[in-house]
Amino acid sequence: MKVHVNRKPVEVSGEALGTRLIDFLREELDLTGTKYSCGIGVCGSCTVLVDRKAVRSCRLEVRDVLDKKVLTIEGMLRPDGSLHPLQQAFLDAGAVQCGYCTPGMILTAHALLLRHPAPTREEIRSALRNNLCRCTGYQQIVEAVERAAPFYRK
Questions:
Q1: What's the pTM?
Q2: What angle do CA 59, 78, 61 make, to 5 degrees?
Q3: Spatial contact of 112 and 123, defined as CB atoms under 8 Å apart
Q4: Which pLDDT tens digits describe the chain residue by residue (154 residues)?
Q5: What is the rounded CA–CA span in Å between residue 60 and residue 129?
Q6: Are 18 and 62 contained in the same domain?
Q7: Are residues 53 and 108 in the same domain?
Q8: Environment class of residue 36 by beta-carbon count within 10 Å: exposed (0-12), middle (13-18) or buried (19+)?
Q9: Can you tell me the distance from the alpha carbon of 3 to that of 54, in angstroms, rounded to the nearest whole number?
């Protein structure tokens, strides 16, 4: 049994099938960029992409992602180790303060931009509405997504 995490196949043992995806990513694969916060799928801090769709990893078990493609914030890095343009846009726009919500915000925005590379501000806000941030006031986050959008249109 396999899961594809950040473009690499990962063998999964039968005993891991009932493990929450967030725990598997953080504890078994040492991918700690995925943050644990509410544990009930409300805050968005644990967001990852599964087959290019933003999902809450605290609400899924490993069995739910067998033979699927999981992308974490670590997988956003470019092959040369540099930041993805969306990650860089978050830095450039000042959309990172404490940083706890940032991986989930970036992955949610990435899913939006993959399916809709020219979103309006309202569409960006709507896509991010279930990702909570206590630091930035959201304006910088919306600006970061707008800054990165042209990259997705290429």
A1: 0.96
A2: 15
A3: yes
A4: 999 999 999 999 999 999 999 999 999 999 999 999 999 999 999 999 999 999 999 999 999 999 999 999 999 999 999 999 999 999 999 999 888 999 999 999 999 999 999 999 999 999 999 999 988 779 999 999 999 999 999 8
A5: 20
A6: yes
A7: no
A8: middle
A9: 16
CA geometry: angle 132, 86, 148, nearest 5 deg:
105
Note down the domain range covering 63: 2-75
- What DSSP string runs through the chain? -EEEETTEEEE--GGGTTSBHHHIIIIIS--TTSPPSSSSSSS-TTEEEETTEEEEGGG-BGGGGTTSEEE-GGGGS-TTSPPPHHHHHHHHTT--SS-SSHHHHHHHHHHHHHH-SS--HHHHHHHHTTS--SSS-SHHHHHHHHHHHHHHT-
Task: Name residue, tokens 């544990």.
Answer: 39
Q: How many domains does the chain have?
A: 2
Please give, one letter per residue, the 3-state secondary structure of 67-83. Answer: CCEEECHHHHCCCCCCC
Strands 69-71 and 2-5: parallel
The verdict on residue 80 lying in a domain is no
